[in-house]
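Sample 3 of the quickstart, ligand magnesium ion:
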Amino acid sequence: MTTPLIDLQGVSKTYDNGTLALSDVSTIITQGSFLSLLGPSGCGKSTLLRIIAGLISPTTGTIKWPATNDARPDDIGFVFQEATLMPWASVLENVYLPLKLRGKSLKDVKPQLMDALSRVGLADFASAFPRELSGGMKMRVSIARALVTRPPVLLMDEPFAALDEFTREKLDDDLLALWESENWTVIFVTHSVYESVYLSERVLVMDARPGRILHDLTIDASHPRDRKFRTTPDYIRQYSEISDALRHDVEA
Ligand code: ADP
Ligand code: MG
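Result:
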């Protein structure tokens, strides 16, 4: 099934200071897919994600949501590189925030909060404070906060880039398991070739000055995937292809 969810046509973005951050991006993102935006710093990945989230508007071009009568879903989950937790609030209260903003009482939604925490493996840490958590655990809280409203679309902007390699690999695996169980559409920004090939069904390789899509690649391997995938000839071939494409683009 390939239902178009997001339809971007000729999208460009020039910021007020004159920076052309994105130029003529056209692509269709299908419902339920796992897509990565991969490219060097400054190529417009965050800009594209913010346009999809509706936080900023394109300067030219259109973004449409054909699967939902062109309405952007009210609820889009957004996870940033920094966990951005409230240091004075417990893990539970941090995850409660999006529901609190919708006027829900803590008592009513507590089972929902505990469910979100158990989905990221933190059920035992509901009353802990952010300072008591490791970097990986903080990121899990941030993911729980994004999924507590059960958004159909999850946008992730280099969510694991500040974590050590082992924690990152674990969170990559947990994210894949969540994606498979939640029917999410995930758009995942990374500058790691490894991560993009390991996780995604499709990778858009981007280039800077101006930001644009250079390659649109389907990762040829079925899900579920696990770390064994990383030693298969299929993985190594696709990793090398993307690496070579990027290196060529960065040198050019
Ligand atoms: P990436 O996420 O790939 O690193 P960004 O989307 O953050 O790239 O930025 C793309 C380009 O737009 C960069 O040159 C960046 O400096 C510029 N840029 C990003 N945000 C703004 C802004 N609010 N105002 C002006 N320029 C910006
Ligand atoms: Mg960015």
